[in-house]
Amino acid sequence: MRGQNKNTLKVLAVFSILLLIVINSKTTPSPLRTKVTELGAGILGSSHNTLLWFGRLIPFSGYKAQNKALREQIELLNTRLEESKIVQEENQRLRDLLDFRKIVPYTTVPAQVIGRDPSNWSNSLIIDKGANAGLKQYKAVLATKGLVGRVVEVGRRSSKVMLINDPNSKVGVLILRNRHGGILVGRPDGKCKMIYIALDSDVKKGDRVITAGFGSAFPKDVVVGDVVKVGKEPGRLYKYAIVDPAQELSKIEEVLCIK
Fold first, then answer.
1. Cβ(94)–Cβ(112) under 8 Å?
2. Is 21 a member of any domain?
3. For a FRET experiment, which of 103, 112, 115, 199 has its CA 20 to 30 Å from that of 251?
């Protein structure tokens, strides 16, 4: 670009000299000098505009480093903004969990999820609390929207939690609307299945499922999920219902463990 600009200047300089010679020559007829002057003025004016355009364009090439630095600053600010959003969302979840802890009628220990079982045959979490925090095996684990699972292994500073959608999980449950009972088992697809529902039960899609409170593992009346499908398997004397867990178990990050 700069080389083209220099060549243009050279051509204009030569043309200007020739133009001055013609205009100032006494031997050149007056009408010819007039036409040459008009032609020269047009060319020089056009060339002047061209040079102005080059002049505006050329300085921008010097701003490349500055533009790059500005782009990097924008990317950094965007990154910090995303990090700020993540922190805000985490703070909101923790506030919700602490508020939920205040209304739960049990003694609980808050814990964070620090790992997940990568196996396709089980659904479990690793949390950052264990025996040192008072956790015990087989006790229920909750979240703000409902039942998560139960503690199945307890270490000193960490524990393993089996989720309610694990195929090995079994929870005594009730249909909230009619108090009809059944057993909730896990499924590989991430949902749960309520089995042993009486044939005469009017269970239907949208019914809320809660814990029955049988035994010492799960307290009574904890929300489990909602019925999304009802059916009857051939040759069986009971109905079943597919239940969508109230808590999104695949994304859970904080829990409350009942002591």
1. no
2. yes
3. 103
The answer to whether residue 86 is domain-embedded is no
Compute the distance between CA of residue 203 and CA of residue 71 in angstroms, rounded to an integer. Answer: 59
The residue range of the domain holding 188 is 170-248
Vertex 106 angle, CA 102 and 107, to 5°: 85
- Is residue 40, in this structure, part of any structural domain at all? yes
pTM confidence score? 0.66
| Residue 90 one-letter amino acid | E
Q: What is the domain count for the chain? A: 2
Name the 3-class secondary structure at 82.
Answer: helix
Look-up: residue for tokens 């500073």? 157
Instruction: Assess contact for 249 and 239: CB atoms under 8 A.
Output: no
Give per-residue pLDDT as tens, 9-67: 444 444 454 444 444 444 444 554 444 445 444 544 454 555 454 455 455 555 677 77
Question: How would DSSP label each residue in 22-66?
Answer: HHH-SSS-HHHHHHHHHHHHHHHHHHHHHHHHHHHHHHHHTTHHH
Residue for token digits 């959003």? 85
